[in-house]
Amino acid sequence: MNISEKLAPIRKGLLEFVILKIVAGDKVYVADMLKLLGPTEFATQEGTLYPLLSKLRREELVDYEWQESEAGPPRKYYKLTQKGRTQLSTLNDYWKELNRTLADFGN
Amino acid sequence: MQKVVTISLNGNSYQLEEPGFSLLRSYLDRAETRLKDSPDRGEVLGDLEQAIGEKCRGMLGPHKSVVSTTEVERIIAEMGPVESADEKAANAAADGGTASAEPASYGTEPRKRLFKIREGAMWGGVCNGLAAYLGLDVTWVRIGTVVLTLFTGVTLLIYIAMLFIVPYADTAEDRAAAFGVPFNTEDIINRAKKNLDETNHRWHGEWRRQQRHMNRQFRQMSEQIRQTAANVAPSMAPAARGILTVFIPIAALIGAVIFVGWILALISLVTQNTIFGWGLPHGVPLWVGIIGLFVLYAVISAPFKMVRHGGHHPGWAALSGVVWLGCALLFFWAAYYFFPGFHELVDQLMWAANLTMSTISETIV
User: Fold this and answer.
1) CA B28, CA B34: separation in Å to the nearest integer?
2) Which of A8, B146, B167, B312 has its CA 20 to 30 A from that of A63?
3) Which residue of B lies nearest to A76 if distances are taken between CA atoms?
4) Of residues B151, B176, B208, the one with CA closest to residue B100
5) Using a CB-CB distance cutoff of 8 angstroms, which residues of chain A are in contact with residue B10?
6) Are the Cβ atoms of A30 and B51 closer than 8 angstroms?
7) Is B44 close to A50, i.e. CB distance below 8 A?
8) Distance from CA of A106 to the nearest CA of B (A)
9) Which of B27, B44, B95 to mutate to test the interface with A (most CBs of A within 10 A)?
10) Angle at which helices B286-309 and B314-338 pack, to 10 degrees?
11) Where are the alpha helices (DSSP H) in chain A?
12) In Å, how far is A100's CA from the nearest CA of chain B?
């Protein structure tokens, strides 16, 4: 088992955090999210992303609005809710804390 | 040639090749099973459908209206396996160290079952299912069946019995069980890909290449005759030219007669084992007779075809086409009324066509 495989559950757990970060910027469409994630360690697919986004919406962390597209039917554009923003800053703090802890252990 | 299935994804219709449609249906069935316990099931499935629809649209263009099976495979591979985002499923996946949440996917050895398989079937899918069950190449199973049928009629009875008794592998699970392999989406895709590459591309491609080659040769020959005729024409007396142009419709007429005669001979051979009362020589099997008829027709009709297509005026070619079609229709009409075997065959074909049409319209979502 190589490192990438070993850490797969961690990346999986972090995906939600990453999505909140992406959505925090501008309103985004799923295809654009996938494009952003593609070259990174968090590369993912619609099969994973749609269920996750639906869950986040159920938890009222993100919301979407329909927007017309030049080609085809209207698309869902996701954005962060107020609750999501609070959650994101909590996660950010927690992540920084985690990093500090990890760094301290090495010495 | 592929049958095309029209589907509706989130309010837009798309045309898919049939094996591709089966793949997509398996994928969505699978997604639905995975999301069984999720409260967002309906929404996620809608999103997935829209994403698939958008990808389908990306594959199409002004001169391309059907999404091929290979493209559907690519779309499904891009979409990736559907994973429920809810705690329970996510935990199960983390514990197992794999994306799959179903315990049935691993642990126990998958059990093989006998099914009829529609994908890539010639007729009922019996041979196809048998080949999957025995782990043999389907071509060998088909050849075996045909050879056995020639030696003993019991094979045919067994085949028909299996047609009724053995169930169709309709769901993704069934298909996996038919091949006796673990059931997950990637496997289904890989298997379909392998089968398609092997059967479709190879045989289909080879057949088309042959066909193109024959057509090219035929055109070249016609062209030569046309050239010769064109060279001769100016030096010909107008009367001679008139004879040649008159002969074109006559050739069309003879061609039509030969065509209808050939069809009737085929029917007669299949239904009564004789060609208009003339039986096959002793020991010659039926299929040799049928192939012989095909060859005979090709040989006899070739000169008339060449005369028709070799006319030096394009208008005459069109006229001869119309004459040919008219004659063929007339003869078909006559045969339908005066030849009971032909009558029955047409009725059966119409019935089968009706059945197929209603099946297709039922499968359309």
Assistant:
1) 10
2) A8
3) B47
4) B176
5) 73
6) yes
7) yes
8) 27
9) B44
10) 150
11) 3-6, 8-24, 30-37, 46-58, 82-105
12) 26
**H-type alpha helices, chain B:** 18-34, 41-59, 69-79, 87-96, 126-134, 138-151, 154-165, 172-179, 185-195, 205-235, 238-272, 286-309, 314-338, 340-363
pLDDT truncated to tens, each residue of chain B (365 aa)?
Answer: 678 888 887 777 888 888 888 888 888 888 888 888 888 888 888 888 888 888 888 888 888 888 888 888 888 888 888 887 775 444 444 444 444 333 333 334 456 788 888 777 777 788 888 888 888 888 888 888 888 877 766 777 788 888 878 888 877 667 777 777 655 555 555 655 555 555 555 555 666 666 777 777 767 777 776 666 666 555 555 666 666 667 777 777 787 788 878 877 877 777 777 776 677 777 777 777 777 877 888 777 777 766 665 555 556 666 666 777 777 777 777 777 776 777 777 777 777 777 777 777 776 65
The answer to whether the CB atoms of A47 and B80 lie below 8 A apart is yes
Q: Which of A44, A47, A72 minimises the CB distance to B82?
A: A47
Token pair, residue B172, equals 């993704």
Contact status, residue B364 vs residue B5, Cβ threshold 8 Å: yes
| ipTM of the complex in this document | 0.81
